[in-house]
Specification:
Layout (H helix, E strand, L loop, with lengths): L1 H12 L3 E5 L3 H13 L3 E5 L2 H11 L3 E5 L7 H10 L7 E6 L4 H9 L4 E4 L4 H48 L5 E4 L2 E8 L7 E9 L2 E9 L4 H13 L2 H7 L5 H11 L9 E9 L4 E7 L4 E4 L5 E3 L18 E4 L5 E5 L15 H12 L4 H16 L8 E8 L2
Parallel strand pairs: 1-2, 1-3, 3-4, 4-5
Antiparallel strand pairs: 6-7, 7-16, 8-9, 9-10, 10-11, 11-14, 12-13, 12-15, 15-16
Helix pairs in contact: 3-4, 10-11
């Protein structure tokens, strides 16, 4: 009955190969003949070195190995196998006439998977060989599944990198926005894809808008939602849907267009407009506290309005505030990931330290301020990877 079932299994899954390594020809031939009657393909080797060569060449499902052999005994054979990355998953059944617990423990410690007494009955031999073949099948399936997962991860990583490049392509190129207006930015998503997005909206030759958008959550979904929102925030779309360049009116309409998702995700945003003719900065925020005006005099003004993020209440009206702006003033839009992160002690860096850093850097070149602010944040937390998306956009008005 056992023999019949074994042959059936071999037929269903293909013939399994068994390597028999034994320096005693009579014992080796007898075991090989028995295994062949059970339906296995059998390879034989008369010593440990020949057995290793056969194992590397044939990759059998199971190796049945004698303990006592000249030059290389069974335990030494096992050690070689477990040190070889290509062979270490091989299933090894050690054959021995020594069945004392301490000897069995030594064999297992040196790499054997199971033991078979030379005095074992044909039923025990069949059962242990079947168990070894089953284990080998499971190990190979696991290895194949692991390789398949690795390949899928590589494909996914390539797709994420492609998506990340697309998201970054939505960001504005640094440099001169308008004559006398420079923009520099830094972007550090916490994952391959980030939910923070920022851009410039050109209204006219001396009037432009800019925004920093933050989608709740991390990864692919927030990045996709932010990309969708960025389409709404294009100049032609805003003029069509809002009919105005007023920041408060823009956020009021966006609040209706982008309600909470079914899973409760939302947007925070700061939207500002700079009018170079009137030397004014108009802005509105929705649940976002990451905007500050650093005047040439050294004064820092946080542009914060206590209100809800977008999508919580469709009846919310967002109000525009206005500030004067002069030559040498700098506007910084930033995500909360730039100040709401802890050091190893658990203490947050906070808006106060961020403000102090920007003030200390003063009127150094804008690119230096952006780079050194990020560097100081990294030094505070003690490592490069931020727990949340980090975006920092600086705009300097020279006229």
């Amino acid at each position: 009955m056992i023999m019949s079932r074994m042959r059936c299994n071999a037929a269903e899954g293909g013939v399994s190969t068994v390597l028999v390594v034994d320096d005693e020809p009579t014992a080796r031939l007898a075991l090989a003949a028995r295994l062949q009657r059970l339906g296995y393909r059998v390879i034989q080797a008369g010593d440990g070195k020949a057995g290793l060569e056969a194992l590397r060449r044939e990759r059998p499902s199971l190796t049945i190995l004698d303990w006592m052999m000249p030059e290389m005994d069974g335990p030494s054979f096992c050690e070689y196998v477990r040190q070889d990355p290509e062979l270490l998953t091989s299933q090894i059944l050690m054959m021995t006439s020594h069945d004392q617990p301490e000897q069995i423990a030594e064999g297992l410690a040196r790499g054997a998977d199971d033991f078979l007494s030379k005095a074992a009955s044909k039923y025990e031999i069949t059962a242990r060989v079947q168990a070894g073949i089953r284990a080998a099948t499971l190990v190979r399936r696991l290895r194949d599944a692991t390789e398949e997962i690795r390949q899928k991860q590589e494909v996914l990583e390539q797709e994420l990198q492609s998506a990340a490049r697309y998201v970054e392509s939505l960001l504005p190129p640094p440099g001169i926005i308008l004559p006398g207006v420079q923009m520099v930015h830094a972007y550090r998503p916490s994952l391959a894809l980030g939910g923070d997005l920022f851009n410039i909206v050109p209204w006219s030759d001396d009037f432009f808008g800019l925004y920093l958008l933050d989608a709740s959550g991390h990864g692919v979904s927030p990045a996709l939602r932010s990309s969708s929102f960025s389409t709404f925030l294009r100049r032609d779309s805003l003029l069509r849907h809002v009919g105005s360049n007023d920041p408060g009116a823009i956020l009021t309409e966006a609040n209706k267009q982008f309600p909470l998702t079914e899973t409760g995700h939302y947007f925070t945003i700061v939207f500002a407009s700079l009018d170079l003719r009137c030397h004014t900065l108009s802005y509105a925020t929705a649940g976002h506290g990451g905007a500050l005006l650093h005047r040439r005099s050294g004064e820092v003004c946080w542009m914060a309005q206590p209100n809800l993020p977008l999508g919580f209440d469709p009846s919310t009206t967002y109000v525009t505030a206005t500030l004067p702006i002069g030559p040498g003033d700098r506007l910084y839009l930033l995500s909360d990931g730039l100040y709401e992160f802890p050091a190893a002690s658990g203490e947050l860096w906070g808006q106060g330290r961020l403000e102090t850093t920007i003030q200390a850097l003063g009127q150094q070149p804008l690119e230096t301020v952006i780079t050194e602010t990020i560097a100081e944040a990294v030094r505070w937390q003690g490592h490069e990877q931020f727990p949340d998306d980090v975006a920092l956009m600086g705009v300097e008005v020279a006229i």
